[in-house]
Amino acid sequence: MTHDVIVTLAALGVAGQVLAALLLLVGIGWVAGLRGPGEWVRRAVEGYELWIVFLVSAIATGGSLFFSEIAGFVPCELCWYHLLVENGVVKQAHACLISAPGGCATKWIEEFGYVTIPGLALTGFALCFAFLLLAAAPPPTATVPER
Q1: Looking at the domain assignment, is residue 86 inside a domain?
Q2: pTM above 0.85?
Q3: What is the domain range of residue 8?
């Protein structure tokens, strides 16, 4: 059962990453002057942005609690920039070796060849940030046709 939940959380993470990538492309298009996709996204989620953030953060929190309390994965106490440590870009500090068995470089899960717990956390953060930006953006102004 634990493996099934891990795969499900990883699949949700992949779906979130696809959504985050699409939102990033829409945002880049918006900056470049391509307003159509951005307006469509705003109309599609208007009024639901905070509910989406709630849903993403609830799934992320539930997943984190599952990993630590049910699956028994020891959480790192110093997890900021964890992706870089986990992938050998940054050397782990001595405190990392103390805070978790095997240190911060331990990959507790690796689904679909790349989905790890820090990657899931980053995905959740990116989605919450994107939808909070949408919620904070001023509503589009209606254009009045000239006479």
Answers
A1: no
A2: no
A3: 2-73+108-136
